[in-house]
Amino acid sequence: xxxxxxxxxxxxxxxxxxxAVLRAQVAVTxxxxxxxxxxxxxxxxxxxxxRAGEIDRLKGTQAxxxxxxxxxxxxxxxxxxxxxxxxxxxxxQAGSPDQFRLKALVTxxxxxxxxxxxxxxxxxxxxxxxxxxxxxxxxxxxxPTIAVARPSGGPSxxxxxxxGGQNVQPPARIVLADVLASNGVVQGIDHVLLP
Length: 195
Hints:
Helix content is 31%, strand content 22%. Residues 1-19 and 154-161 have low confidence and may be disordered. The N and C termini lie far apart (42 Å). The protein is globular. The longest helix has 12 residues, at 4-15. The protein contains nine helices and eight strands. It is of the alpha+beta class. α3 (43-51) crosses α7 (99-107).
C-alpha cells in the first residue's frame, strides 16, 4: 500500500536528478506542518520551525505559502551558521539556540496567501515575508526562483549580506512545486534564504 511518505519520497528522490520543476502528483490532505513532516527531505526545516516556535502557525487556518529549503539546501549554508543558530557551536553560546534569528529565518520562508508556480510565471515581483523582509519571486526563467529582495531605496546590506553578515546565497530554485495543503502550499527550494 502506498503511503503519502512513500509517494513523496519516491517523487522527491526522482526530482533531484530532474532539471525541471517537479509538481506534486498526489492529492494531499493535511496542513502545511503535516505535509512538511511527511517528506523526510524537509526534516531540518521542520526541526528549525519547531525550535523557532512556528509549527502552530503552519498548522493554523491562515492561507500561507512556505518556501521550504531541502536538507541539501541547509548543507549549502555558510559553515557554522546553522550550528550557531541552533546553539550547537562551541563557546559561551553553546547549547543556547538563538530564538530571535531562528524565528527570522523560518518566517522569511513564509508568505501570506497562496503562491503557485503558475502565478509566478512571466514576471518578477517582490512580496513581504512574515518576518517583514521582502522576497523576490522570479518566474521569467524555465524554473521559478526566489531570492532575498532589496527594498527600493533601502540599504544595500539587505541584498548583499544576510544573517550574521554572511553573503546571501544565489536565488533558490523551486525543486518541488505546488504541494497543496489544507491551509496553503509548500514550494520546495534548493537554497536557504538568509534574511
